[in-house]
Design goal:
single chain, mainly alpha, two-stranded antiparallel sheet, 18 helices
Amino acid sequence: MSIVFSALVAAFVGFAASVAVVLAAAQAVGATPAQAVSWVAGLALAKGAASLWLSWRHRLPIICAWSTPGAALIATTSGLDLSAAVGAFLLAAALMMLTAAFRPLGALIARIPMPIAAAMLAGVIFRFVVAVFDEMRLSPGLVLPLLAIFLIARLVNPFLGVVAALGAGLMLSFALGLANWPAGPLALTGLEFVAPRLDVAALLGVGVPLYLVTMAAQNLPGFAVLRAAGYEPPTAASLFVTGLTSFVTAPFGAHMVNMAAISASICTGPDTHPDPGQRWKAGVVYGLVWLAIAATAGLLLALIVAMPKALIVAVAGLGLVGSLTGALGQAMSHDGQRFAATVTFAVAASSLSLFGVGAAFWSLVAGLGVLTLDALAGRLRGK
């Protein structure tokens, strides 16, 4: 029962804490309600299948998740339609599979300084966190109680702070008459094919940054959680399977799945099972739970979409506070790279768009450019 309970909690936390960010991404690229359902259903299928197969095949509790930083990146992109976004998703998934098959590519990505990658991530999600307080000005009666509940609940359990805020927000929205249940019949779930379009601006502005933030902010911490629990993760196999499932489900709107960190920590500790050799079963149960979520994605999203905009924005922002905290800490961790990281953060947090390419890509260019200039100046001073 502890295995089943851990898997259920991990799946619930993974869904409730970040589904609002995924919905924001779907809305940013103009997805219809049916396409938003397809997006979430495709993600649930991908992470369920990847978790189930990897856990069973390697007898390890390998927990997969959707890329929340990737969804935040998509949500902050302007002028992007769904077809071009799908083309970018396919590129990111292909790059992930190439990383698994071609080790020099992984080594090249690893050479990007962590402060620069972390600063890009921090800039991408910064606007989500700030939006919580923008919405508080417009809807203080709803957002202020949610913030208080989040701050108190995280003292008891950091994993469940956002879940508690979402649960309280649902009840408060119905109590205040702010919820608007959609009229007409509701689809249980559904997959809707979207023909991809390979747009150079979208590939550079979304596809490449999506791959990079997923690697830096999701896969690397996910592997670290497994190693901290005493397991040696099958790195290449995990990257290939998550890349392959992402590639297969991308034409249905699903942006990216990857290794989980927070959800994985719930399923890899002694609370799941005292015998580390038995904890892999939690990954199998977790995968089955996500397949069930895929089968009911329409009903689950109908409940979320019925809520007021202030609730969705607040929950999305609160769900990213932890990620912003970690990213800022990593970005400022190296004295010699702090200035370059600050430039990277500022560009990523802006609304910059050049040649149709968004701020995330240019933040990397700016940060690496500053680092290069600093290195050249250091060599000249040394002479």
